[in-house]
Each structure stands twice: as structure tokens, then as C-alpha cells.
Amino acid sequence: MTLNVNLREVLVQAIKDYDYPRVTFDFKSKVEQRHGSMRDVERVIRTDLTSGNPDAVKDGLSNVLYWGFYTRGGIRDFRVTEFRKGVTEKKLDEARHLFKNLKETGVIQIKNLHLPQFSGLSFVSKARMFLDPSRYVTLDLSLMRLRDARVVTIFREIKQYKTQIPITGHNELCYERWCELCRKLVHDSFRDGKVLAVDIERGIFHLVKTGRIDLAADILSSV
After folding, report:
1. pLDDT digits over 140-151, tens only?
2. Selection from 198, 223, 197, 219 nearest residue 208 by Cα
3. If you average pLDDT over residues 60-67, what whole number do you get?
4. Average pLDDT for 191-201
5. How do the domains of the chain map onto residue ranges?
6. What are φ and ψ of residue 4, in 5° steps?
7. Is 67 within 8 Å of 45 (Cβ atoms)?
């Protein structure tokens, strides 16, 4: 079902207004990189994750954390450092193989790598998103505020701990449905090829971030 004109305009503007920092870190030169668009961020991280080179995969996963924790300063640096100190060559080799061959949703498969700092759905879904932002999106803890919206959305079904969304069979199915919902919005209402599933998620994220939870839920429930 195509979004009505008003809801589509709200979502289009929210996608444009999404303002999360467009940054990665060059771990070789030890310099932060600022990018002109999220497409550039996606390209840099995806290239590393799918390179087949364990050292590049290490940098790609580090940048998932660096980008995802960017607004949290010291926590960002701690998480990245702990990951880089704790991840083993064996784990990076397993990740390299999985990322080159992952065909399905795969968040349980990524969790089962037991990579440091990648245990909950928030950051595992970020890694999945960067592998293929045209089909997969992030399920960030901030989006769980949609459970409080006046209309029911998929977020009412997701099981949540206080500070983490656990990765379970049930939550993987919910995550897949969330991805499918974003893909359907692209298919039904954005046919120019410029909007990806992840852009829908980012627009919804921006609406939630700016307090328009009911409006975001109205968009989701209209699909």
C-alpha cells in the first residue's frame, strides 16, 4: 500500500533531516574521516567488511562501533579499544568467511561468532545493515520507544532487556519483519532507486529522536 501524500512527505523530510555524524576512523593513519554522505560511510565500512582480508574486517567492525557510539564520546573509544584488543585472528577469519557468504538475515550467525562488543541486536544489526543497506536496517534501542506509540507496530513484539535487545530466534524473526517493512515502504512509495531500506529506518529513527513517535508509528502501521 502506497503511503498517503502527507505521510510520505513527512517521511521524505525525516530522511533528509537525518543528521547522525557521517564519520569513520582510519586506523592506519589514526585520523578521523568525515564523509559527505551516509552512502560514503556505508561504502567505506562495507568495503572493509566484505574485503576478505581479516585486518580490513577488523577495521570495518571497529568502525561499526566507532560510528554507532560516536555521540557517546568516551564510551565510543572504550568500546572500540576493547574490541580491537579482544578480537582474535581466528574470530576475524570466521567473520571474514561469514561476511563474504552471508545470504540470509543472519543476526544469530553473527552473534555466534562471539565477537567482543557484538552481543546484542543493536550492534549486530548495524553490522548486518552495513553489509547490505538496500535490504537490511538497524534495530537500535532508541527505536524501542515506538512501543509507547498509540498504534501497534512490530516493536510491541520485540523482547527487550533494560539496556539491550537480546538476539533470540523470536527477535531475529521480528528483526526480519522490520527489515521487510522498510523494504516494502521503498517498493511501494519510493521507486526512483535513490531510497534504500536503511533510509526508511533512518527517517523513522529521526522522527523518534525528535519526539514524533506517534507519527512514526502511523507511517509504519499504514504499510
Report:
1. 999 999 999 999
2. 219
3. 98
4. 94
5. 5-221
6. -65, 165
7. yes
**Inter-residue contact 156 to 218 (CB < 8 Å):** no
CA–CA gap between residue 137 and residue 176 (Å, rounded): 9
Half-sphere CA count of 181, side-chain side, radius 13 A:
20
Helix (H) or strand (E) holding 176: helix 169-189
**Global pTM value:** 0.95
How distant, in Å, are the alpha carbons of 81, 128, 166, 175 from that of 140?
A: 22, 12, 12, 11
208 vs 215: CA distance, rounded Å: 9
Q: How far apart are CA 85 and CA 202, in angstroms?
A: 31
How confident is the prediction for the chain on average, in pLDDT? Answer: 96
Quick: pLDDT tens for 65-122: 999 999 987 899 999 999 999 999 999 999 999 999 998 999 999 999 999 999 999 9
Axis crossing angle, helix 169-189 with helix 121-131, rounded to the nearest 10: 40
**Count of alpha carbons within 13 Å of 122, Cβ hemisphere only?**
16
